[in-house]
Structure to design on (112 residues):
């Protein structure tokens, strides 16, 4: 079983949102993404960086466990919330990535 670690953070300063995701496998950095956006809420920025991190981790080969470390657990909960909310379209994209990840091998897991 190969584990991948997804570490995310998002913040807003002077109306500019910055989001960063680091992905590590076996203590080695694999992917680092940094995005900037204007006129978004902190929840939107946090949700976006979670989506990017999960998307990139699910695309890596031979990964069976994804561990997400974030201080945005309220945004992460929106991914799995079936009720209508402003980020529902993005949640559907993230869930699609996770469905493919779990369909590859039933023993695949994700932890927050």
């Amino acid at each position: 079983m190969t584990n991948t670690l997804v570490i995310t953070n998002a913040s807003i300063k002077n109306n500019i949102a910055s989001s960063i995701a680091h992905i590590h496998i076996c203590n080695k950095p694999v992917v680092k993404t940094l995005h900037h956006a204007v006129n978004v809420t902190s929840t939107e920025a946090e949700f976006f960086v979670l989506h990017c991190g999960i998307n990139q981790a699910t695309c890596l080969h031979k990964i069976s466990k994804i561990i997400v470390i974030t201080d945005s657990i309220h945004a992460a909960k929106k991914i799995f919330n079936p009720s209508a909310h402003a980020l529902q379209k993005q949640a559907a994209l993230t869930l699609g990535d996770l469905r493919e990840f779990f369909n590859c091998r039933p023993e695949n897991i994700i932890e927050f």
